[in-house]
């Protein structure tokens, strides 16, 4: 076995995500896992190869429970930027049988048949949002992320959970901050406290006045008597489901529109009927996964990955699910090109193994409906030529453009 690398010379994972794909290439070429420095001086193993990610996610020796299996947890500073995801107390971070039991209770709510029944409501919301673009004159642009992707996905997930209208803006604002890995520890601590207040109020409301919604289902589980779950666990379940249901889809929709408008020949193929929306969605998931790195996992014993790399028991692991879609071992031909016609669109955008994302069917449906609605109403949509390439979200966890200015009716198309 090779000696442990000098941790003082570890590459620093770029929390600004200015060029995540370039960094993923560098990390992937360095070995099956490579030590990286995270905020706060935390050292973790970065895994960006698809085959290694698959192996680790299916390995029963790998846990997601930091409280049981991360010896270094006590040294993590309060407000750590990756903490809101890494330290959730819900089935996202449970291990083994506890995870399977908790996941089974939530899985029926996101079953494909139940999700498909949401299509009429998603279509109605999409039509209303896209319809608002009629107020724009020829050549005028709109930020599609904030005018379509964000309000659509927030409406869908909050309707599903029965979140009152006045609680939705603070939830969205806090979620955005908690997934921004350039935020300060103080900003993270404040945003976590703010969203906890809103989620506590939501649980209290659903206990007083339950309805046919998923927040009422979560609130109905007894807490505090030693047999149910704690109030913190109930809040964290809502945090996970609302956050995952919102952030994943908003980034997927925005990235899909950006990719299509940057590659208009594929949009022409959709219009001609030779390419379907499903293929566009799957290629977007491969090409620009809405999640990039998910923290963290912890081995219960030493794990030998070969090539002289051994991850010791309790050393944190950061899996680059967004990197897997561009792994040249999986996609040897043009892995960095957006091509919905490619026959193999294999990706790990929704994870892999026991923790595969429950919300995958919903995110796929929302994106298909959004694309149909936008390009059905405005087939000549184009990227705003007066603006530079959109900046990326400043997050090593989620991935996508922070804004996307689109011209629904170009002046030439309008005959001006």
From TrEMBL:
Gene3D superfamilies: Cytochrome P450 (1.10.630.10)
Single GO molecular function: heme binding
Keywords: Heme, Iron, Metal-binding, Monooxygenase, Oxidoreductase
Keyword Ubl conjugation part of the UniProt annotation: no
Superkingdom as given in the UniProt entry: Bacteria
InterPro entries: Cyt_P450 (IPR001128), Cyt_P450_B (IPR002397), Cyt_P450_CS (IPR017972), Cyt_P450_sf (IPR036396)
PANTHER family hit by this protein: CYTOCHROME P450 YJIB-RELATED, P450, PUTATIVE (EUROFUNG)-RELATED
Family: Belongs to the cytochrome P450 family.
Protein name as it appears in the record: Cytochrome P450
Species assigned in the record: Kitasatospora xanthocidica
């Amino acid at each position: 076995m090779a000696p442990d690398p000098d941790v003082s010379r570890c590459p620093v994972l770029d929390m600004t995500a200015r060029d995540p794909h370039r960094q993923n290439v560098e990390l992937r070429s360095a070995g099956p896992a490579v030590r990286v420095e995270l905020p706060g001086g935390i050292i973790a193993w970065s895994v960006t190869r698809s085959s290694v990610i698959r192996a680790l996610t299916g390995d029963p020796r790998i846990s997601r429970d930091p409280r049981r299996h991360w010896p270094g947890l006590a040294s993590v500073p309060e407000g750590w930027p990756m903490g809101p995801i890494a330290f959730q107390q819900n089935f996202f971070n449970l291990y083994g049988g506890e995870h399977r039991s908790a996941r089974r209770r939530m899985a029926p709510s996101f079953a494909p048949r139940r999700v498909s029944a949401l299509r009429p409501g998603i279509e109605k919301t999409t039509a209303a949002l896209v319809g608002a673009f009629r107020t724009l004159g020829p050549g005028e642009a709109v930020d599609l992320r904030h005018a379509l992707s964000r309000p659509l996905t927030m409406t869908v997930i909050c309707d599903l959970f029965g979140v009152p209208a006045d609680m939705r803006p603070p939830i969205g604002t806090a979620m955005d901050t908690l997934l921004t890995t350039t935020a300060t520890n103080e900003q993270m601590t404040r945003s976590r406290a703010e969203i906890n207040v809103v989620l506590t109020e939501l649980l209290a409301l659903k206990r007083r006045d339950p309805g046919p919604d998923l927040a009422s289902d979560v609130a109905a589980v007894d807490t505090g008597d030693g047999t149910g779950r704690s109030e913190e666990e109930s809040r964290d379940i809502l945090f996970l489901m609302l956050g995952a249901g919102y952030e994943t889809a908003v980034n997927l929709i925005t990235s899909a529109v950006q990719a299509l408008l940057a590659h208009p020949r594929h949009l022409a193929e959709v219009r001609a009927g030779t390419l379907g929306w499903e293929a566009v969605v799957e290629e977007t998931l491969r090409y620009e996964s809405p999640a990039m790195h998910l923290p963290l996992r912890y081995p219960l014993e030493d794990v030998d990955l070969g090539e002289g790399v051994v991850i010791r028991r309790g050393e944190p692991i950061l899996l680059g699910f967004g990197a897997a879609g561009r792994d040249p071992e999986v996609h040897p031909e043009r892995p960095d090109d957006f091509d919905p016609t490619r026959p193999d669109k294999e990706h790990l955008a929704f994870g892999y193994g026991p923790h595969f994302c429950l919300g995958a069917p919903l995110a796929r449906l929302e994106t298909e409906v959004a694309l149909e609605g936008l390009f059905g109403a405005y087939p000549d949509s184009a990227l705003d030529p007066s603006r530079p390439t959109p900046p990326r979200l400043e997050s090593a966890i989620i991935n996508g453009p922070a804004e996307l200015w689109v011209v629904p009716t170009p002046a030439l198309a309008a005959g001006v």
